[in-house]
Amino acid sequence: MVAAVVVALAVASGGAVGAGTGPGFVAAQRRGLLHDDDGHLHRRGGLVVGSAGVVGSVCRALWLAARTRGAVAALAPVAAPGELTRVVMRLGLGEVCCVAGARRAAFCAGIIRPRVYLTLAMAEAPPDELAAVLAHEAAHLPVGTRCAVR
Question: Helix (H, G, I), strand (E, B), or coil: what is residue 41?
């Protein structure tokens, strides 16, 4: 994201990206915008752009985490079918939550306590397909995360 902002600023000023030569760079140099009174190169602009990019990325990550948490909390849990329990135990997976849903869907969610979520329609899939889906979703979990069927 920061690189995109830097590239956009360089292109907007007419400068070549990273080369320090384009017409925008030369014009800014003539006006004294790139150097202070002692002739030192200003670094504040890059620091401001970089900091803004980091703050923006952190804010977006927090917003997405809160939004995801709310969406997952709104899901209605249902009793897991026996076949799901058997497949989870056979694969040695961690916590797998079964939620109401007519469509086949599976996803991994959670930052502090990540879990695999399956809709009831997905949990009723054939055992080999269910095992493949669970193995795929379990690959998204951090190493060492252990679960049980809920």
Answer: strand
CB 87 within 8 A of CB 132: no
Please state the domain extents for the chain. 2-73, 82-138
- Using CA atoms, how far residue 99 sits from 26, 35, 85, 120, in Å, is 61, 60, 14, 6
pTM of the model: 0.58
Print pLDDT tens along the chain (150 aa).
Answer: 444 444 444 444 444 444 455 555 555 555 555 555 565 556 666 676 678 888 888 899 888 888 888 888 888 888 888 888 888 888 887 778 899 988 999 988 887 888 889 999 999 999 999 999 998 988 887 765 554 444
CATH fold of 82-138: Zincin-like (3.30.2010)
Q: Spell 90-116 as b/e; 16+ CB within 10 A means b.
A: eeebbbbbbbebeebebebbbeeebbb
